[in-house]
Structure formats: C-alpha cells, structure tokens
C-alpha cells in the first residue's frame, strides 16, 4: 500500500512531526506554576486553529484558582489530575459566532493546538471531555457562570509534567484506504 512506508521513527525527525508524535496525555504534575506567558502562548496557538468560514466560535476560560480546579474534580469523573495541575483552560463554543454549525470541530482544532503547543513548550496537558454530556456541561456552566449561548466543550489540564511517557506508535495502515473503501 502507498502509505506502508510511513515509519513514525523516521517522520519523528522531521519538523513538527516530532511534537505531534511525542504528544501524550500527561496526568501527573509538579507544583511549579505555568507562567502567564506560557498560558498566553497556548491561547495564541488555540486561536491559530482553522475554523469553518473563519467564524472562530471559541471562548476560553483560563483557570489557575486552586479551589476552582478542585471544584471540577467533584463532578467530573476523570479529572483528579486537576488537584495537581497548575492551570486549566476551559474551551467553549459561542453559539452566536457559530454561523455554520461546526463549533465542535472548530473548538476541537483549537484544543489540539493547545495540546501540541504544550508539548512543544515541555508542558504536560490532557484533554477532559465535557460536551455532549449534559450533566458535565451544566456543572461547568454553573461553576464558571457561563451564559446559555456558550457551550463548554472540554477542559485541558496543564502543568509541568511529573511523568514521562514514550511516544506511541499509533500508525495503523489497516485504517487507511486509498481512493475508495
């Protein structure tokens, strides 16, 4: 098959592929704070994401208040790492800016850019899903005072990593189809 020669070990050496292939979900953090400059860079990366019709329907809540981070752990079943994380970014879709119905895809692209920029900067990060689970959406809305026309998509925990993970080789040629199924 055409794609059979794509070896992640070779691709890893070229350009941004290294960051992409080495990005892993990090759930353990040191107590070192993430700088405001790093948080701003993560947001710049998020806002550089593509969006349908360039609508940019995203809104971001940067959370560095320990009590708010802990509050999320009381209702989100997969969020215990927020007890250690220095910060989190809540990514939301603004329905008033979403002219094409693609806010989930647009905000997901922004989230991936945050994860990649965190990897590039040597930070650890993990994506915690919120939408479409109404209980999580409601609790995030309540915790952060989010208006009804804004929908929280996810929370990204961010910190200085206290764990390392080897890059995973996830390339699977069985899921690649050339020209047709």
Descriptive account of the structure:
The protein has one domain (25-164): 3-Layer(aba) Sandwich (NADH Oxidase), CATH 3.40.109.10. It contains six helices and four strands; from the N terminus they run αααβαβαβαβ. It has helices spanning 8-11, 17-22, 36-47, 66-73, 103-120, 134-144; strands at 58-63, 87-94, 124-129, 150-159. The longest helix has 18 residues, at 103-120. The radius of gyration is 17 Å and the shape is globular. Residues 1-6 have low confidence and may be disordered.
Concise summary:
The chain is of the alpha+beta class and 181 residues long. The chain is 33% helix and 17% strand. The protein has one domain (25-164): NADH Oxidase, CATH 3.40.109.
Silhouette: globular
CATH topology-level fold name: NADH Oxidase
| CATH superfamily membership | NADH Oxidase
Helix content: 25-40%
CATH class: Alpha Beta
Q: Which second-level CATH architecture applies?
A: 3-Layer(aba) Sandwich
- Tell me the fraction of residues in β-strands, as a range: 15-25%
User: What structural class do the secondary elements suggest?
Assistant: alpha+beta
Helix and strand topology:
Layout: H1 8-11, H2 17-22, H3 36-47, E1 58-63, H4 66-73, E2 87-94, H5 103-120, E3 124-129, H6 134-144, E4 150-159
Antiparallel strand pairs: 1-2, 2-4, 3-4
What labels describe this entry?
NADH Oxidase; 4-stranded antiparallel β-sheet; disordered N terminus; 33% helix; alpha+beta; 17% strand; 4 strands
């Amino acid at each position: 098959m055409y794609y059979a020669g794509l070896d992640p070990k070779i691709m890893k050496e070229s350009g941004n592929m290294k960051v992409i292939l080495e990005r892993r979900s990090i759930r353990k953090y040191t107590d070192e704070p993430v700088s405001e400059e790093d948080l701003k860079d993560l947001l710049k990366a998020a806002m550089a994401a593509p969006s349908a019709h360039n609508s940019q329907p995203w809104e971001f809540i940067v959370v560095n208040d320990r009590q708010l981070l802990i509050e999320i752990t009381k209702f989100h079943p997969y969020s215990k790492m927020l007890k250690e994380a220095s910060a989190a970014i809540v990514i939301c879709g603004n329905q008033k800016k979403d002219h094409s119905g693609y806010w989930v895809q647009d905000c997901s692209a922004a989230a991936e850019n945050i994860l990649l920029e965190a990897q590039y900067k040597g930070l650890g990060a993990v994506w915690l899903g919120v939408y479409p689970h109404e209980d999580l959406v409601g609790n995030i809305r309540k915790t952060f005072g989010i208006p009804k026309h804004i929908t929280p998509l996810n929370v990204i925990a961010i910190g200085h990593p206290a764990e390392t993970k080897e890059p995973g080789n996830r390339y699977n040629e069985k899921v690649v189809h050339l020209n047709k199924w």
